[in-house]
Specification:
Elements lengths: L13 H14 L4 H6 L3 H15 L5 H14 L3 H13 L4 H8 L6 H15 L6 H9 L4 H24 L14
């Protein structure tokens, strides 16, 4: 049961509904996460604005979804794993790529390095040892790439923690179980 209940759209002000309509146009529905964040414009707008910035970065949609899956797995966020498995499918990730991303693995060395960096950021609470950063950069990641991965991680930590606190009801198909 949700701890922070999603808003009733009939009670939301017009600016919130405009934002939620844009989300519906993009995703085909307004997921419970957004209805929950809409409890306060600050929470919803923080997500939307950072998400818009991230979407204009160098990383493509598949890479962003892979990072979201790696972060969701590291933070045990059932909601985000379900949502990003579904969205990952929408952007062309195969089931095996979705499962691999959750384990910080990808088809290319560079993408794997990005996912491992994302996981390292979480595991080290941002204090990633210099030797590990050097290893990631040796795969071709630039300083800018490292910071762009960080911004993606921050966006996903935000939604993971929002879902943990709110106890958001999952409204996507459950993520597949990873093989033992």
């Amino acid at each position: 049961m949700a701890y922070i209940r999603p808003i009733d759209r009939s009670q939301a002000d017009s600016s919130i509904n405009i934002t939620l309509d844009a989300i519906k146009a993009k995703l085909g529905k307004v997921p419970n996460l957004f209805l929950t964040l809409a409890t306060t414009p600050v929470a919803l707008n923080a997500y939307v604005q950072l998400g818009d910035v991230v979407g204009r970065g160098k990383l493509n949609a598949k890479q962003r979804e892979q990072i979201a899956l790696a972060v969701g797995e590291a933070n045990s966020c059932e909601y985000c794993l379900a949502a990003h498995s579904a969205i990952g499918d929408m952007v062309g990730l195969k089931p095996a790529q979705i499962a691999a991303a959750r384990e910080a693995r990808a088809d290319t060395a560079r993408d794997s390095a990005m996912l491992q960096l994302a996981r390292a950021i979480i595991e080290h609470r941002g204090n990633v040892p210099t030797g590990e950063l050097d290893t990631f950069k040796a795969t071709g990641l630039s300083d800018g790439d490292v910071l762009e991965v960080l911004v993606n991680v921050v966006l996903n930590i935000y939604t993971n923690y929002a879902n943990h606190i709110a106890r958001t009801q999952v409204d996507f198909p459950a993520a597949a179980q990873l093989a033992a």
